[in-house]
Amino acid sequence: MTNTVLVVDDPFEAGTDLVVEGLSSSDIPVFRMDTADFPRELELRATNVDGQWAGTLSNKYRSIALADVKAVYWNRPNLFQFPELSESYAHWARGAARIGLGGVLMSLAARWMNHPSRASVAEFKPQQLRTARSMGLATPRTLITNSADEVRAFAENVEVPLITKPLGAPHVVHSRGSETMYTREVDLDALGGVELTAHLFQERVPKQYEVRLIVVDDICHSVKIKAHSEAARTDWRSDYDALEYEPIETPTDVINGVRGYMARLALTYAAMDFIVQPDGRWTFLEANPSGQWAWLNRPEIPLAASIAHTLENWCRR
């Protein structure tokens, strides 16, 4: 038996390239795949023996035994693709591939970063806020509604300006092209469209700076984000050119809350966002179980090495 790391992701994901590169310096084998490789470039042979799945995963380069997989790095693989089939047959084939290949992989006796079922549950922002608060982390007062009247009542109650941010994917495609929706301050006189779907509104938390906190297993890597433009001070994602980064210490109470959050949701990786207020208090905003980190990776913020070492250690246990 050769303990192996299975990497499941888009083949062009830069962060995953760094993780695989880090693993290459060890003696732990790595098998990288994308779910979109199946079935044209990936073959599955799996037999259930005494309740365990035995067999192989193979591509044109190599083959691994399912029983050898002891660690799985699952990030953002692509959907199954069946371009040669009609849409109705492709829909059927995607379902079979998801339950067949996906089901076998999810049944492996391995440690995950993160298991897809856990990551899926952890994507819901209402669940994130509830869990964070239950673990002792400070959270903003928040409203989710499709009622403009409720937004106005909420604003009157909190007595500070409100911000709004997307609940789902921030990218929208429409007849005039596409756009990205960033966090913005709410204009209470322009709430048309709120009734169309659910929207999230929060009190605007006083901000000294923001922190991207990358959690790898139980290790917290906190990075101070210094914003040098008005747009970046509202949402740092809107102006990356105006940002500087600095690794900082994570307060003990935040570490304890984060570890409780991760344990409650059965996660081993998350990219969390915090606001640090002028008085030094950390306020939790959200946690992405598949959040990006590669742009922060550097010698003083060794995120790729941290992930690679964790996967390697899981294989050695």
Automatic annotation (TrEMBL):
Domain ATP-grasp: 129-316
One record GO biological process: SOS response
Record has ATP-binding as a keyword: yes
Record flagged with keyword Repeat: no
Listed GO MF terms: ATP binding; metal ion binding; ribosomal S6-glutamic acid ligase activity
Top-level division of the source organism's lineage: Bacteria
InterPro entries (alphabetical): ATP-grasp, GRASP_SAV_5884, MvdD-like_ATPgrasp
GO CC annotation: cytoplasm
Keywords: ATP-binding, Nucleotide-binding
Protein name: ATP-grasp domain-containing protein
The organism of origin for this protein: Streptomyces violaceusniger
